[in-house]
Amino acid sequence: MKTDTPALAPDDKINWLASIPFLGIHAMCLFVLSVGAKPVDVLVCLALYVIRMWGVTAGYHRYFSHRAYKTNRVFQFILALVATSSAQKGVLWWAANHRHHHRESDTELDIHSPLHKGFWWSHMGWIMCPKYEQTRFEAIKDFARFPELRFLNRFFLLPPIALAVALYFIGGFSMLVWGFFVSTTLLYHGTFTINSLSHIFGNRRYRTTDTSKNNWLLALITLGEGWHNNHHYYQNTANQGWFWWEVDISYYSLKVLSWMRVVSDLRTPSDQVKYAYKKYTPEMQAELKASTDFWGAVSSRKKAAEDKVREALEAAADHLPTSAPAPQALLKRQ
Ligand SMILES: [Zn+2]
Ligand SMILES: [Zn+2]
């Protein structure tokens, strides 16, 4: 019995044709083999990774999805523009989908739960599925009222294309390959780790109804998003690293911007939230430790499904002819 296979819905299918641009960006990275690695190109690649990752975490995630701080309308547009140049679709699409993820975390309705839909689906399969293509406007009414954001959301391909063209004219084909294709591919997978790996590897400090983890390595790659268990426990804070050792570069930059009065009202967790784990009973702590194991969760799901079948077979045993094999034997044979 294969109960540990991901529970994809029948319409959870990949549209390969529509995914050609997404996969094409990956394929274009192969040109590094012919253009080599000029230091200036590699530097531009890294700089654009950091700038656009910042747009995604400080903008798409903390501002547009969670309203974790305030800013003016001009800077709000700049945030959306920088993040849109990451080629991760439109601002309203991204934030609305993300709000949905928090509402349904690791339930069967979660668009990208590794627990229910498997690693690859949570990492990138869902992006290539036509089912999730449309913006869920009902979930993002607060920002959908700005016409400039609706425009960016609709023409989300413009900023990344403009960036690619600019890189080509500034530094030629090699800068296009490194600065756009390699950088954007790294950015994709850096961001996607939060949907996949952050729900699989790491530690859990807080009790949440999902499998979110805190992971320092993912926090470095994503400028602070790897403190994902903190984040799932209390979503609306501008910082996701809550202790001094939890490095959160996005938050440090927001702090600097707040001194410059570009952003304001950065929300941070109260002590009650931050230290809630200190009140956990030893049983709760033990449960938290045990639940950090993703593979353990998969195998317990498998066992639960097997138990169900066993019970059903045992219940049916009374009605079986005496010549039929015992229920346990039936189970083993599958
Ligand atoms: Zn999550
Ligand atoms: Zn979030």
TrEMBL record:
Main location class: membrane
InterPro entries: Acyl-CoA_DS (IPR015876), FA_desaturase_dom (IPR005804)
Region Disordered: start-end pairs: 315-334
Membrane topology: Multi-pass membrane protein
Subcellular localization: Membrane
Residues of the Fatty acid desaturase domain: 42-235
GO MF annotation terms: oxidoreductase activity, acting on paired donors, with oxidation of a pair of donors resulting in the reduction of molecular oxygen to two molecules of water
Similarity remark: Belongs to the fatty acid desaturase type 2 family.
Biological process (GO), any one: fatty acid biosynthetic process
Alphabetic keyword roster: Fatty acid biosynthesis, Fatty acid metabolism, Iron, Lipid biosynthesis, Lipid metabolism, Membrane, Oxidoreductase, Transmembrane, Transmembrane helix
One Pfam family linked to the record: FA_desaturase
Transmembrane in keyword set: yes
Gene Ontology annotations for the cellular component aspect, listed alphabetically: membrane
Bilayer-crossing regions: 16-35, 42-63, 75-96, 151-170, 176-197
UniProt protein name: Fatty acid desaturase family protein
